[in-house]
Specification:
about 270 residues; mainly alpha; 15 helices
């Protein structure tokens, strides 16, 4: 099962997808071969990267309609829709057709996302299951995902571990922490985890009055470049109790280095 998902992910992410004549696939080639994948999107320069991603994603899914390719296309359409729906609100006094084409792109994305949801109602793909729950409130889909929690292909996916942490955050702090730690364990050398991982850990530990833990991860976030994280209240809680900030700063530096070199291990073992 794990190999099946891995192969699907690799096939969907290849940047050198080849056409029949063994030349790299380009937007121009896709639009020439399948103009319908291009003509119903916005025609101006707004959302250029998102539009290109959708066009290639549509072609990939058309050629190989696996659940993984549908999942990637769904994410691409969500990103495109967020961009183009905002752009559609910008009025063009002289060029009304620009606004019209953005609206068309917005409607296309809604239609295509709904198509994917309809096509994948019986899926077992963990990413799609999470989307069915989070976007369509399908507890049936979430129950299927929860039954996959301990499967290797779920345990090895940083994205799915974050999805599960988001789910459990509503009612189970300990399981949320376990999944967030797993996200950090899966962080690759040279990468910086998403700020939301640190914010969630800080929030839970602060709520639990584990101020040393909260401070450590708030400081890690700051050291990672997330200056907007709130650390003042946590620091006050510690200093008012006579706790040493210096020791925690050293721990934060050490832990951050482990995370960003891909060597972090959950302290929960």
């Amino acid at each position: 099962m794990a190999n099946k998902w891995m192969l699907a992910i690799v096939s969907a992410s290849l940047l050198t997808l080849l056409s029949g004549c063994e030349e790299p696939l380009t937007l121009a080639k896709v639009c020439e071969e399948t103009p319908g994948f291009c003509n119903d999107l916005n025609k101006d320069s707004h959302c250029k990267e998102e539009r290109a991603s959708v066009i290639i994603g549509r072609y990939v899914e058309y050629k190989d309609p696996t659940d993984e390719n549908k999942y990637q296309l769904l994410k691409q359409f969500e990103s495109y829709n967020s961009c183009v729906s905002l752009a559609a609100q910008i009025e063009h006094i002289k060029l009304k057709e620009k606004t019209t084409s953005r609206v068309e792109g917005h409607l296309t994305s809604l239609k295509e996302m709904n198509r994917i949801y309809q096509d994948t109602k019986q899926t077992s793909h963990p990413g799609l299951l999470y989307y069915h729950w989070s976007r369509n409130n399908s507890q049936y889909a979430m129950n299927k995902l929860l039954r996959q929690e301990d499967e290797p292909y779920v345990r090895q996916s940083q994205e799915i571990q974050m999805f599960l942490a988001t789910y459990y955050a509503k009612f189970d702090d300990d399981k949320t922490i376990d999944f967030l730690y797993r996200v950090l364990e899966l962080n690759q050398a040279g990468e910086t985890p998403d700020l939301e991982v640190y914010k969630a850990l800080v929030s839970i530990f602060y709520k639990q009055k584990k101020y040393k833990h909260a401070y450590t991860f708030a400081r890690i976030a700051q050291l990672s470049g997330f200056e907007e994280i709130d650390i003042i209240d946590i620091e006050h809680e510690l200093t008012s109790r006579g706790r040493s900030i210096g020791v925690l700063n050293q721990l934060a530096s050490k832990t951050r280095e482990e995370i960003e070199t891909g060597q972090f291990l959950s302290p929960r073992g």
